[in-house]
Amino acid sequence: MKLTVLGLGEVGSLIAKGLADQGVEVMAFDSAKVKNPVVALAETAEAAVADADVVFSLNSAMISLSIAEQVAGSLKPGAVFCDLNTGTPSLKRRLAEIVPAGSFVDVALMHPLDSAADRLELSVSGPGAERFTQLFEGLNAEVTYVSEVAGEAAARELIRSMVAKGMAAVAIDALWAAKELGLQDWAIQELKREFDAASAESFQRQLDATAKNPKRHSVELGNVVELLSEAGYESTTLNGVAATLSKVMHSKKIPHANTED
Q1: Does position 71 have pLDDT exceeding 90, yes or no?
Q2: For the segment 194-211, what is each residue's pLDDT rounded down to a tens digit?
Q3: Ramachandran bin of 28, using left for φ above 0, alpha for ψ from -120 to 50, beta for the remaining angles
Q4: Measured CA distances, 64 to 55, 57, 87, 153 (Å)
Q5: Which of 54, 74, 95, 258 is the most buried (most CB within 10 A)?
Q6: pTM of this prediction?
């Protein structure tokens, strides 16, 4: 398999090196000057993709359309064009219309990479997703085929991002609040212990408890709001939490929560 990476940023470089180390013939192109490239560089994007079986676009959502338009006419018959940029399902569908019919793959990187040796965890959708899955058999990659509909893999990635970014935002808000109360050193250790103790079972217990007792949780949240008001701290996340609890109190069901004793 010959593979081209368009964009040798941090993630692009890790993927390129990881696949090259497994014996994949990897070529790359980046419009910026790359210091110490991990694989051979082509002089143009068009030249980089001309002989590739697989093309990875790893630039940014803002320029993904222009990149696809630039190289679409240079893709060889049967090649798959894979967009790994974080973007909306509607953007992925637009990309699928630009490249040759049947060639587009919406690739969601479901776990961040720390090194080139890390296993790629990918969800794929789009008209070229089945061929992509076949090409990556035997490599250090876990590929989950979602569907032939471009954008359905991106939706999964964005929901995961919503959870990760939301958890980080709430934790940061709590640390800021704790600092106002002189509790920042205790708070960081408590948060770390909470994350260390987290499990699938503890997550389910949180869902079930909230579904069963949303009013009690709302009252407890009110005590938090009062505490922070007295400390002169304005939370950045509690309004959203309160809105969620209010919806649960007004009978909006939580998917997969158990309300039975």
Answers
A1: yes
A2: 999 999 999 999 999 999
A3: beta
A4: 13, 7, 9, 16
A5: 95
A6: 0.90
